[in-house]
What we know:
Number of helices: 3
CATH architecture: 2-Layer Sandwich
Radius of gyration: 17 Å
CATH class: Alpha Beta
Structural class: alpha+beta
Bound molecules: adenosine monophosphate, zinc ion
Distance between the termini: 29 Å
Shape: globular
Number of strands: 5
Order of helices and strands: HEEEHEEH
Largest sheet: 5 strands, antiparallel
CATH superfamily: HIT-like
Strand content: 15-25%
Strand order of the largest sheet: 1-2-3-5-4
Helix content: 25-40%
Low-confidence stretches: none
Oligomer: single chain
Amino acid sequence: MEDCIFCKIIAGQIPCSRVYEDEKVLAFLDINPISEGHTLVIPKAHAENLWEIHEEDLTAVHMASKKIIRAMKQVLNPEGVACLQLNGRGVNQVVMHYHLHLIPRTKGSEPLPVSSWELKPGNQEAIARLAEKIAANLG
Ligand code: AMP
Ligand code: ZN
């Protein structure tokens, strides 16, 4: 897609530090890493977000991610890997081409800002009502 920076990376018009590629997926290191090894896994077919992406591309992205975090384990021996995926400018999606962040945290490094938040109990009745509403709108 024109003017999409990740489509340009896929087309080879912009360089990247590639870690994985197959028929449907490309993965490369983030140029603004929030931890060592911060990787982006993207479908080659342009789709903006989780609403738009085709199921086979979504599957391919996650299958590739499984392979990549196995390799990360060998190389970085992380304590854990956070998988983060943003949908919409309202939640700070900046590049409007679906991407899954794989963010490893190595031993002794700072806690990841994306994986720690305060747990505050919600209104359990409201939670139950909302679950029913969403469930009733599936499919
Ligand atoms: P977001 O859309 O907020 O989920 O994040 C977009 C991510 O893409 C950011 O972490 C950027 O650092 C990253 N990014 C933007 N341009 C490039 C690029 N040319 N190569 C690698 N990563 C990029
Ligand atoms: Zn694109």
